[in-house]
Fold this sequence. Notes:
single chain; alpha+beta; Diaminopimelate Epimerase, Chain A, domain 1; 2 domains; eight-stranded mixed barrel; 18 strands; 39% strand
Amino acid sequence: MILSTVEMxxxxxxxxxxxxxxxAFTGRTLLDKRREAKQRHDALRRGLMLEPRGHDGMYGALLxxxxxxxxxxxxxFMHNEGYSTMCGHATIALxxxxxxxGRVARQAPETVVRLQCPCGLVTCxxxxxxxxxxxxxxxxxxxxxxxxxxETWGPVSVDIGFGGAFYAVLPADSIGLDLHRSPMRAIVDAxxxxxxxxxxxxxxxxxxxxLAFLYGTILTxxxxxxxxxxxxxxxxxxxxxxxxxxxxxxxARMALLRARRAVGLDExxxxxxxxxxxxxxxxxxxxxxxxxxxxxxxxxxxRADFTGEARFRFDADDALRExxxxxx
Length: 328
């Protein structure tokens, strides 16, 4: 078996776009296909994401046929641990790829690309220079100032925001860390422990039950992105570190700022990752409440770049064809 991919990165975070070779799906809806990928083809996900073809920080986007009537293309997001419901950095990469590959005809001054994601329809706008803006599904603050009991720091106060996925968000200095100076391993350890503690302590709900789980932790520098970019580090899928500012995380952070009345409509904020890459965030309009919470539509802006193309073999007699992780 051979799978063909296009390789991209957004602020250093990889997106491996799987364009050919994946077995056909029988499921009708995108969420049906997501469940089918887990149950029938998960060895391919592991083989593409993990060593020797990938690594624990790899991220993938599998193109599938959309079932949404307005969608230009549909995607299943994947990583070292499983399948995501939304991914902003991969959305930015996919939108640029769709235009430059000719999948969606280029328009002036911007090309609209409608991407069906597991969380819903995402509308992207691709500029002539490759920059991308996208509007995701309604974002909202699920909980503010909730306590997650941890073994290391005792009770930790977190906010829970939804930006296509749920995140626990807190300032790094509230647990004695500095996003510029602390070792990344310490930040990762904290993110993983807090995610587990918050998931156990704070029940989540969403109209689509497949989305009602805590995806990761976002540690911030405490800023709001108004005067200068606010640095954040997102830890998800166990111990994976997002090298980008995290598009769905920026969406969630903007929803949390909106819930605290700390940002108005059309106020642009900037967010920075551990690589120095920046995304913009802007609340473009309010949306209908979700699960009784005030919701908003957030626009995120960023840029992705191409790094190559690949054809990966899966030979039947390869003992490591399904990949492996050293769990470092």
